[in-house]
Write a structure and sequence with these properties.
alpha/beta, 406 residues, 17 helices, five-stranded parallel β-sheet
Length: 406
């Protein structure tokens, strides 16, 4: 029977079907998004006592995997209670700290009845050190900061938002007046979500000063841990400077040449840093919407941060930039995101299994905004489009309120 908690994550419903599969279940995503909690939750679902949890941030645990000594590892695990004659469950947190771990996991999956639950903060690691050795033996799941519905749940608000972007949903028919009650009920929560993001510890902290301190600590741990252990960058100061420059451009297209001039880094180094920041879940890059791969490659991507609170830690963002960044986070769980650029821009093109939507973020939408979006959506050939607004507009309601996106 599935064991649930008050602060249940949506991803857990998918992971519940992975408890007894053969492949290693790998949870990846930003630091402090809840991966360790998710790993423990999966282990808690196991009825057997033949299980153990290991943390690779501990030096003693890392030493166990420094050399690929299968007999030594089996002997150690046997001493701490693992019986390899029956099905065993092993959870290992922060897998990016061990280069040898994939070989150990592969061996135990192939030669013993071991189910692994693994977590790490980097697709950079998974791509460069984990993929080939674990081919056919893993399934990867990404855990991001809280969605707005999860945010409300963590706040103890028993308010269920209706699913959007489903098979029968027409975004163009959504209007503010249909959901005015929700706006007045949830506005303060949505404003907090936009301002401080969705890291669970930050959401659960009621004190504003401590929220800011926690965000600063999360970012510092990213620099001191992920950057330190996953890269050979010569200067963390250069990387920090680039992050500050990028944060100030949240929601904008990034130009490598301009960034190189501003930071004093070479274009090659700038690209390397940005690739690292994306693969370690600090930023998200949206490509231009096009069926032509050459166009996608040539056009500059738009930049967003995985969490708006972290973006705000590194730049004094406008309310509009915070809102747009938050919308990017809200929308990404529904499908593929891109942007449109052809004689005018559309912030988000959301492509799901059922439909494609053209969506424009506006803090206070106007009829002029809707007319411009209509023209651009027609140019793109997308009939289902709408403005997404943050605020109540007194004499206009032909838009969707962002706080309705679960």
């Amino acid at each position: 029977m599935l064991k649930t908690t008050l602060n249940h994550r949506f991803l857990w419903d998918r992971l519940s079907t992975e408890i007894d599969t053969r492949e290693a279940t790998v949870i990846t995503g930003p630091r402090q998004a809840g991966k360790s909690t998710t790993l423990q939750w999966m282990l808690d679902q196991v009825e057997s006592d033949n299980k153990i949890s290991l943390d690779l941030t501990l030096e003693s645990t890392r030493q166990l995997f420094e050399n690929f000594d299968a007999k030594g590892i089996i002997h150690y695990l046997g001493q701490v209670g693992i019986d390899f004659s029956s099905r065993a469950y092993i959870a290992i947190d922060e897998i990016q700290y061990s280069k040898e771990l994939p070989f150990v996991v592969k061996y135990l999956i192939d030669h013993h009845q071991v189910k692994f639950f693994l977590s790490g903060s980097s697709s950079y690691y998974l791509k460069n050190q984990f993929s080939e050795s674990m081919a056919g033996r893993k399934l990867i799941f990404e855990l991001y900061p809280l969605s707005f519905q999860e945010f409300l749940n963590f706040k103890g608000q028993n308010y269920r938002l209706d699913p959007l972007f489903t098979k029968d949903y027409e975004v163009s028919k959504s209007s503010f007046s249909q959901n005015a009650h929700s706006y007045h009920t949830l506005k303060a929560y949505y404003d907090e979500f936009i301002e401080y993001g969705g890291f669970p510890r930050v959401v659960l902290e009621p004190n504003i000063d401590r929220k800011k301190a926690l965000l600063a600590e999360i970012f510092t741990s990213y620099i001191d841990l992920d950057v330190e252990h996953l890269s050979d960058f010569r200067s963390k100061a250069d990387l920090r400077n680039l992050i500050r420059v990028l944060a100030a451009r949240t929601g904008s297209r990034i130009n490598i040449n301009d960034l190189s001039i501003i930071t004093g880094l070479s274009q090659s180094t700038t690209r390397t840093y940005i690739d690292f920041l994306e693969k370690t879940y600090l930023i998200r890059l949206l490509p231009v919407s096009s069926s032509n791969q050459d166009v996608i490659t040539r056009k500059q991507p738009k930049l967003y941060f995985i969490d708006t609170g972290i973006a705000s830690q590194n730049a004094d963002l406008s309310g509009g930039a915070k809102f747009e960044n938050t919308l990017c986070h809200q929308l990404q769980r529904y499908g593929q995101l891109s942007y449109f650029d052809n004689r005018g821009e559309i912030d988000f093109i959301l492509t799901t299994d059922q439909a494609t939507y053209a969506l424009e973020a506006k803090e206070s939408p106007t009829p002029k905004d809707k007319k411009e979006l209509s023209t651009r959506a027609d140019r793109l050939g997308v009939p289902d489009y709408n403005l997404i607004g943050r605020n109540h507009v007194a004499k206009y309601d032909n838009y969707l309120w962002g706080g309705l996106i679960p």
